[in-house]
Amino acid sequence: MPFAPQPSPGEEYFRFVAIFTWTHQEDELAAKRFLPYIQSFEGTGIHQETAVCLYLTGERTVIFSGYSNSATGLQRLCSGIIFNTPIQGRFYHAVDAVEIMKALPQSR
Which residue in 3, 15, 18, 62 could disulfide with 94, CB within 3.0 to 4.6 Å? Predict the structure, then answer.
């Protein structure tokens, strides 16, 4: 297989992806809201070594991905960014594509 799944840091962790978007009018506000989380994920339950933060240039979109052991920690992350702002955020449980391929009958 060309891709190797990133190993989970432990049984209590689940994989997630968070996608945040905003418009050009909120650029300064978005920068202020994201900066603390780009510097540290403390208090969010996110496993620091598995965390990835990507900014999609030209799209005004930030993507966080990794493993977390706390759904409420992810809620704190989300509310810390979007509360009382026009910034929009969506969270997903994510499954590695290699894990999906292993589960398909034709791959056995």
Answer: 15
Tokens for 31? 């920068």
Please check whether residue 101 lies inside any domain of the structure: yes
Helices (H) and strands (E) in the chain, counts: 3, 4
Integer CA distances (angstroms), 9 to 37, 38, 59, 63, in order: 20, 20, 31, 20
CB 37 within 8 A of CB 31: no
CATH code of 91's domain: 3.30.70.1060
From 89, 93, 67, select the one nearest 78 (Cα to Cα).
89
Contact 46, 2 (CB under 8 A): no
**pLDDT of 63 higher than 50:** yes
Which residues have a Cβ under 8 Å from the Cβ of 54 and sit 6 or more positions away? 62, 63, 65
Structural domain contains residue 9: no
List the alpha helices (DSSP H) in the chain: 27-39, 71-82, 97-103
